[in-house]
């Protein structure tokens, strides 16, 4: 079974959603000087490839530390939405793949936007779900949805899609990368967040485990 990393590295100078404080990765002890290494990490809960909990947008919503570990992993399905840059992603493309989506725990939206990671255009005109699409998806037995773009809503404007998805308890994974490598393949998806108290969100190490065609 091949395993693929789908997360961006966290580091100083990395792309950040407008308004997010930059991370700090500081080596405070070194093997050469102190005979052991230790690093001080400082970053927002929504830095890099990360997971949104309902508490991120919903008053009284569930936090990540309230989910059991099985909530962060399961069979995956990928939908290619690269044709919708700068547009809302319509419902029809999902209805045509309803069978695959219903068998999955995590739905991944392949926009191809990660190709702009580190460039100004990354935070502009990425595709987002149409409201009717989001409303349809929350009727399915999904644990969560992931996307290789900065957000499920535009940088400017309302957070309507977040509210629809998080309002139904779905977990959202943003800033994925390398989704083209799992297109057309059978895979399981995992994204385990950093565990801390009352977590509204957290960076994740997201991965896909590929199954052979005979499995």
Query: What's the total count of β strands?
Result: 12
Count of the domains = 1
Ranges where pLDDT stays below 50 over 5 or more residues in a row are none
Mean pLDDT: 95
Helix content: 10-25%
Number of helices: 5
What is the CATH first-level class name?
Alpha Beta
Q: How do the helices and strands line up, and which of them pair or pack?
A:
Layout (H helix, E strand, L loop, with lengths): L1 E4 L18 E6 L1 H4 L3 E5 L7 E3 L20 E8 L7 E2 L2 H4 L2 H5 L3 E5 L17 E2 L1 H7 L6 E4 L12 H8 L3 E4 L12 E7 L7 E10 L5
Parallel strand pairs: 5-7, 6-8, 7-9, 9-10
Antiparallel strand pairs: 1-12, 2-3, 4-10, 4-12, 5-11, 11-12
Helix pairs in contact: 4-5
Could you name the key traits of this structure?
single chain; 215 residues; alpha/beta; Glucose Oxidase, domain 1; two-stranded antiparallel ribbon; 5 helices
Characterization of this structure:
With 215 residues, the chain is an alpha/beta fold. The chain has one domain (2-7, 44-210): Putative cyclase (Glucose Oxidase, domain 1). 13% of the residues lie in helices and 28% in strands. It contains 5 helices and 12 strands. The protein has helices at residues 31-34, 92-95, 98-102, 131-137, 160-167; strands spanning 2-5, 24-29, 38-42, 50-52, 73-80, 88-89, 106-110, 128-129, 144-147, 171-174, 187-193, 201-210. A 7-stranded mixed beta barrel has the order 4-10-9-7-5-11-12. Strand 9 (144-147), helix 5 (160-167) and strand 10 form a beta-alpha-beta unit. Helix 4 packs parallel to helix 5. The model has no long low-confidence stretch (mean pLDDT 95).
């Amino acid at each position: 079974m091949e395993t693929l990393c789908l997360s961006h590295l966290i580091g100083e100078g990395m792309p950040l959603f407008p308004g997010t404080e930059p991370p700090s990765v500081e080596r405070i002890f070194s093997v050469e000087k102190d005979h052991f290494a230790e690093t001080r990490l400082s970053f927002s809960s929504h830095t890099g490839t990360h997971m949104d909990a309902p508490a991120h947008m919903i008053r009284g919503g569930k936090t990540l530390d309230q989910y059991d570990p099985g909530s962060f992993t399961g069979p995956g399905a990928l939908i290619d939405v690269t044709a919708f840059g700068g547009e809302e992603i319509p419902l029809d493309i999902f209805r045509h793949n309803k069978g695959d989506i219903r068998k999955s725990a995590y739905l991944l939206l392949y926009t191809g936007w990660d190709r702009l990671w580190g460039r100004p255009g990354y935070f502009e005109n990425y595709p987002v779900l149409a409201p009717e699409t989001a409303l349809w998806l929350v009727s399915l037995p999904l644990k969560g949805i992931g996307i290789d773009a900065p957000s499920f809503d535009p940088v400017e404007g309302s957070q309507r899609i977040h509210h629809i998805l998080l309002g139904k308890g779905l977990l959202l994974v943003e800033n994925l990368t390398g989704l083209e490598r799992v297109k057309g393949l059978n895979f399981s998806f995992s994204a385990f967040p950093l565990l801390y108290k009352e977590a509204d969100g957290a960076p994740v190490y997201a991965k896909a485990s590929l199954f052979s065609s005979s499995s």
